[in-house]
What does this fold into?
Amino acid sequence: MAWDELNERKRTILKSIIDDYIESAQPVGSRTIAKKHELGLGSATIRNEMADLEELGYITQPHTSAGRIPSDKGYRFYVENLMQIHSLAREEIVIIRKAMDEKIEEINHLIKKASNIISNITGYTAVVMSPQLSRAVIKSVQLLAIDEKRLLVVVVAGGGIVHNRLIKHDSLIDESDIEKLNKTFNIIISGKTIDQISMPVLRELPRDINVPKEVIFPIFEAIEDCVRKIEATDFYIDGITNILNYPEFSNLMKAREVLDFLKEKDLIHQLVFEATKKQQLDFKIGSENEIDEMKDLSIITTVYGREGKDIGTIGVIGPTRMTYGKVVSSIKYIRELLNRELIKIFGDDL
Amino acid sequence: MAWDELNERKRTILKSIIDDYIESAQPVGSRTIAKKHELGLGSATIRNEMADLEELGYITQPHTSAGRIPSDKGYRFYVENLMQIHSLAREEIVIIRKAMDEKIEEINHLIKKASNIISNITGYTAVVMSPQLSRAVIKSVQLLAIDEKRLLVVVVAGGGIVHNRLIKHDSLIDESDIEKLNKTFNIIISGKTIDQISMPVLRELPRDINVPKEVIFPIFEAIEDCVRKIEATDFYIDGITNILNYPEFSNLMKAREVLDFLKEKDLIHQLVFEATKKQQLDFKIGSENEIDEMKDLSIITTVYGREGKDIGTIGVIGPTRMTYGKVVSSIKYIRELLNRELIKIFGDDL
DNA sequence: GTTAGCACTCTCGTTCAATGAGTGCTAATA
DNA sequence: TATTAGCACTCATTGAACGAGAGTGCTAAC
It folds into this structure.
């Protein structure tokens, strides 16, 4: 795995093989390399080098008389040392800009749109995890009497996030009590971040208020519920069927298997969630994922958010034979856009 | 197409052919029919009848030495005259009940769940269009000052539907003006159904209120927006990849085509929306759909809602070789459950 | 009107040989 | 010593040939 396990020439050859294979999806032979990339080497020499590379585990042969294909180890070396990150084409940038141009005020729309763009640009499956907002500031908690039997609890957090919940009750409740409650709530809760709010404390507060327990309790529950919803990470996955475009999944059984797997939101969520703890850009190539269904897939993830505080994750899932260079540049580009929009939306509320 | 275009025997034979084909997905031959279904007829007789049925267009031959498969016309006759609607198995009812058992208060959850159940039970693709709520009653419109710069508009409709929208502004607004606005709104709007509210009238209302135009206007827009959201029909589609289970789509190209088509939410939405105007149970078989991609698919739809007022649509999309009988019973059953739940949620608010 | 029988058609799976891409090894070359 | 030309070998893929099997249509007999 070390850089100098391979000499200059071996590296060049390995890169050629992988580049070619990513493009063609066909095992690549020694002659192809000798011709296409002018290395000034004969095919026989390359064959020898390839034999070495195979012995070291960077490439494999599907069968004796076929060319070579990269192994997971090969891809790993490639993404760490060899690949070129070619910048996005002008048209692609235009497409992205245009898609992002719409004025978006709600954060979930933003996330959704981002995943959509990514899957379109890369042609693979995109996953986006919405911000984990345990640091979000609660702006306001309000109780509204809809009619005699119903109360609406509204919780507003920074970034224009609003959640609400309806409560049915059978008590007569005085307008003034509601106002009192609202005031109290706002004193204790507003301006705090979610992780600063302690629910037990909240529950102790009411003393001089004439609202029966049967109502107060559901109110607390509703508030907690709203806060939980704010804090909860949403999760979008887009372009699942894109994988059908790639020959490695032209076998229907395999395609089904992978599709079914990608539909398991929980699994994918977990996968992406793990990556949140990782560094900026994280690759999991083929069997580096413990999950069996992922053995022919790679996932590239990165975190987004304000510097220092990573709050969400975006990722791309595709075949191990993925255009890593392009995906990396796309994902980075989107990340920056996302960061910028987030600042616009949240301002200092994060 | 007429009932008596086919005599008793032809009908029986046609039914046998279709039943068999639905089960096996294989062209069915004369001997199979003669043996399986004890009609007391030899295969040669059946052959003759089949030739007639073919001439009349109810069945076709993929090639000379193969059995017969139903044509769209055949299926049409089948669903109108021949098919048996076999009731749901006990286990299936248990599954449905269990899934529906969760307490659901939000209508969109209900719809989502319904589509999920349908696709699970039938094994096909389910589409559910949420209620069109132009008859929904607006319960309350409320303005909330979140902080000095932001107002929250909350619109509550019957059935626990709540929508809100945040407004940013730069004016100083008095607490008492907000209260005045709230009162006025509730006088004019609350208790009315959406189609009774006329927006122009709404816009004329404020006279003695000290809120600048720059704020009033966005408020109206926000209210309109919320109302529009309430009225808008949501749309869920579930089990898209189910079609991969059926041999008619084992050809990857075809499968892709159909999958891509099903992902076109707009198209499907339109398809289902058209059905809303139709009678209780509507079938579109194969090429009866004008859309080319649907030529191998059928869609069965039905409307749900309170008697007289149909408000939403549920449907199942599958191969023309669909287990029509079973789908019909499932869809009917779910419809009843849905109707019941809707009454629970909306009460008299519809 | 029904059916047994038969010739005919067409698909499908299997076998077999030819093809071609690619390898590994060896011996010659620089 | 490193490179390469050459050659024998391997193996997947392709296409042709072929037989088996399923099913039909038609005819003649019941």
